[in-house]
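Input record, target 12 of the design panel.
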């Protein structure tokens, strides 16, 4: 049996913190509409709102495009949880492909 390292404990603490934030959001939303805002996602991802609006936008469902046409940017909780289940590296690769398509469309337009 392998002895756990400090990095193993740090990773476990990070995962527990993420799980707690997901549970907190879910509990606070039991009676509320089942939507999440950028602020909620920032807490669950363990980063700041500014990071989500900048370089970490790939962590947002639909790459930051709101599921609702009016008001604050928000998404259905189930949509976010499904998106969150995708490995962050895969989401990042999808984001890069999305940006490349946008660049190509702007060039041809």
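The sequence produced for target 12 reads:
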């Amino acid at each position: 049996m392998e002895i756990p390292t400090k990095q193993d404990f740090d990773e476990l603490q990070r995962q527990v913190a993420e799980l707690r934030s997901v549970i907190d959001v879910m509990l606070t939303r039991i009676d509320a509409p089942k939507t999440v805002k950028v602020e909620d996602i920032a807490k669950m991802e363990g980063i700041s709102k500014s990071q989500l609006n900048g370089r970490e936008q790939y962590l947002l469902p639909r790459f930051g495009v709101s599921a609702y046409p009016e008001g604050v940017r928000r998404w259905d909780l189930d949509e976010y949880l499904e998106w969150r289940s995708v490995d962050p590296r895969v989401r990042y690769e999808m984001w890069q492909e999305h940006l490349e398509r946008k660049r190509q469309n702007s060039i041809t337009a």
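The chain is about 60% helix and 5% strand.
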